[in-house]
Amino acid sequence: YVMNNSLFFVPMKKILLSVIATVVIVGGGAFFGGMQYATSQTPDMGDLASRFGNFDPSQRLGMSGGPGGFARSQADGGFVSGEILSMDAESMTIKLPDGGSKLIFFSDVSKINKMTEGSLADLATGTTITVTGTSNDDGSVTASTFQILPDMSLHSSEGAGEEGSSFSTPPVSPTVE
Fold first, then answer.
1. What are the two backbone dihedrals, phi and then psi, of residue 174, each rounded to the nearest 5 degrees?
2. pLDDT, tens digit, 9 for 90 and up, residues 91-142
3. Which of 23, 75, 113, 169 has its CA 20 to 30 A from that of 1?
4. Are 110 and 117 a contacting pair, CB within 8 Å?
5. Euclidean distance between CA atoms 68 and 141, whole angstroms
6. Is 42 left (phi over 0), alpha (psi -120 to 50) or beta?
7. What is the mean pLDDT of residues 22-37?
8. Domains of the chain (ranges, CATH numbers)
9. How far apart are CA 40 and CA 17, in angstroms?
10. Up-side HSE of residue 142: CA atoms within 13 Å toward CB?
């Protein structure tokens, strides 16, 4: 027995059970709170998939800094990759990997990049490019950077390693500002 306030005697088992119950309740609450915090810090994979959903694996490799690519993302949402279908002095239309198309506008701050710095003259119908910029309300993109990519057929593994195969990986030393 333990004396409590000199008037009551409390059995030791009751005190021990109370301490254990308190520890379990506080520990469980702390664990639950930690799990909720960790869940709130995990990126939404649906958002990630929507950013890269229209690219095949070789194009994703290019976006991550692999052959012909660069490791840079734009938080303002306008990331497009595909083949130039048509263009004029103010805009171009790009064929997307899923067969759709996207209208791209040039801006005063648009940069055209390739293995070396490029210019508007380097962009032509049939060129495969990646565009970063700002998404517009109508679904078009105002470009801030263009990346000219090597011919996408170079990324195909079909025939790779076979004698007489034309598959090769071009040397890469991209400069991105």
1. -70, 145
2. 999 998 888 999 999 888 888 876 667 888 888 898 888 888 888 999 899 9
3. 23
4. no
5. 22
6. beta
7. 90
8. 2-38 (no CATH), 55-154 (2.40.50.140)
9. 35
10. 8
